[in-house]
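User: Predict the full complex structure for these chains.
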Amino acid sequence: MSLRTSDFVLRDFVLRASWPGLAPARTVLDNGAVVLAKRASMTPAVAIHLAMRAGSSCDPDDATGATWLLSRVIDRGTALRSAADIAEELDGRGITITTTVTRHLFSLLCTCLADDFEPVLELLGDILMSPTIPDEELATRKGQVITAIRQDDDNPGVRASETLMALLYPNGHPYGRPTKGSIAVVESLTRDRLLRLHEERFAPAALTAAIVGDVDVPRALDVAARVLGLWRKPLPTRTVLPPVRRATTRSRSVIPMMNKAQADIAYGFTTIARRDPAYYAYWLMNNVFGQYSLGGRLGDSIRERQGMAYYASSSLDANVVEGPLVVRAGVSPANVDRAVASIDEEVARLAGEGVTEKELDESRRFLIGSIPRALETNAAIANFLQNAEFFELGLDYDVRLPELLSAVTVDEVNAAARHAVAVDRATIVIAGPYRDS
Amino acid sequence: MRCALLGNGLKVLIHEEHTAPLASVWCWYKAGSKDERPGLTGVSHWVEHMNFKGTTNIPRDQVKGIIEQFGGTWNGYTWIDQTTYFETATRDALDRMLFIESERMANCLYHPDDCESERTVIISELQGGDNDPDQLLDQELTATAFKAHPYRHPTIGWLPDLQTMTRDDLYGYYRRYYVPNNATLVIVGDVETDVALRRAEHHFGAIQPGAEVSRIRTVEPEQTGERRLTIRKPGTTAYLKVGYHAPSATDGHFFPLLILDAVLTGAKGLNLWSSFRGAAPQRSTRLYRALVERGIASWVGGSLLPTEQPFLYTISATVTDGTPLPSAESTLLEELDRVERGGITDAELTKAKAQLRARLVFDSDSVTNIAHQLGYFETIGGVESFTTLAPRIAAVTVDEVNAAARAVLPSANRTIGWFDPLPVGEESAK
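Assistant: Here is the predicted structure of the two-chain assembly.
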């Protein structure tokens, strides 16, 4: 057997016809909390994903990292349960709570056995609504966070990424701040300050609960209503983000870390907001540029053809306001200049020549065809539903997504490329065993 | 699940799973870093890289997109006992996935230019690992714990070997180990077993078997005293590791030790592929309470992975900023001594079993994960060692756990490693 391109013709249309759609249930409780539920029975387990619109963008201006510290301590004591009670309840059921903080969302995630669904949702609700933040727990978690900040200080990848974000989003913009904050701020934060942050930012109308797994939808909605429905608090004031200003000149920063073996390059631009109609053109453009197969064009050039790096790729994080497009590569210090020149070359080609019809078609087919795989696990579905809810994409977003991607033209992708990237507007950070000559 | 043996010795495992329109195909080879001879460390992993670079019937420029056209993903990994490759895509890609794996088994090219290009990619991968002090310490601790067995060298290899290995070394290794009688093909997903088996026979049936693979038969001599190593390099954080020689997956002490690890640091499950996804339930465990809750460490974890031959049970801790390494070590060793002397309780056994039961469920949440588990266990002790995991865990007694603790945890069986950071030079400070 050998390869025939015709094998692939119309596959995406076949997929679109066969994908049944998630068709989740959605209800809004009296207090404004949104509950999304979807039954999935591959395993006798349920993924619970509670997302509060209280991410690191809500950090007070003088307390960067407060939300992160709150995330480390929120599940260490509530009005009803001590930290030891919570520990026993989690460990006895073989489960963990993962607490994540993005720019806009503070989330509790947990996968439990289906038999444990009700008590686990009760526990998560209690943690989200009624944390007590005991002083001794706060002291211990501060020690953990400070150690993590110290680890980040010694990590070229983190140093390059965080510095790039600070340069792309300067002057204290929330997108440019390090999520964990600084050691000095962490040391200064008190229990009262964190409780005040919780009081001001956590409320039912800012909450979305996604429940996916081996539980009937009516039962999932009932339990969610019982656990979360009695919580009464006013909607928090909306956080207004400063406008994003695109870089107008090229800049290059070097963070020498001479104790390291490899250098990390972070090279980026600000782009568009997620709700911009051009988003799908940007998504496809980024897929061709730095994602498709093993890192798109970047991977082809830097890894496959030149053998310079184990990884080279780009990511697009269109968000509430104009999010970043970031190229990342890890290279030997001797290859830093060549790698940056290669990224420049690919950026110039993307902006100048655009993508080809063939490249666009390949990326489109991949993204459409990957929908069933991307939505296979309970946790992945719950995350997808949260994303769709946050950006108001609709309950049928998974079904409409193939059409949205199919409608994008090569001209739109190339317009996105011309708008998004330019060698003379690139912000570049290099961290590792390297110095500018 | 259907288990079939083709005429050329290829074992085929097929499991139908119809919850999503997907299929996952994995091809496993009993070729890991334990099969590498001195001077060729890292050859298994480098060969894995080379086997993504085109074949006789898949031109180099058509590798990219070959499975992405089906919305699929592909990857591979190499570890101490095995090398594996997989594709997961929509079910209609089954034939394509089997074709790719049959080509990978028989017809890879090993163009000299590709070999050279990949040399620097792998050295870059190695250097990326060296950037992480915890990973560096793990590598050095393993090398110290083993004197003779090839488990002692890192899967990625030692740098001088990577700098000198030749194309012939790579190709010779490929031809020796990539034969159907040294491989297992696993198919899981929305497929019909009979059809899938026929397609497997179609793609693989004509590949000739190879000579029986000769194995390195080195047995690690019993350790007779505690070993130590200290890495002193500029850094910001101290790391501590303690490694004990541990039983293989088929040894009677393995499951009791798995329970002991859950009591000490929480149950991780037994899926190497998904073990990176989430933390263990560990807040009430002995070492978490002794180290993290007391502010001595910011993180503690245990690692007991199922392996074909006796490997290591390793406990690792990230020492909290400001805590001296000796203090962290003495607290950790006190707890280990306590469990060695006093054993575990019935309540701890019950909790550990509940955790492992839950992890078995969570680790089987996709066709990719199920297929991984079938193939992984087949390469280290037979697929039945996976299908019987739950009853074997359920059957473990307190006495067996305590006996495992007494057998594994004595000080003469351990190696202690420190990463003791030196001040970072001014040029590297934040």
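Chain B is about 40% helix and 15% strand.
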